[in-house]
Amino acid sequence: MTITVPVNLPTPLTLYTDGQRDVSATGTSLDALLTDLDRQFPGMRFRMIDEQGRGRAHMKFFINGQLHRDLDANIREGDRLMIVAAISGG
Question: Does 76 score more than 60 pLDDT?
Answer without folding.
Answer: yes
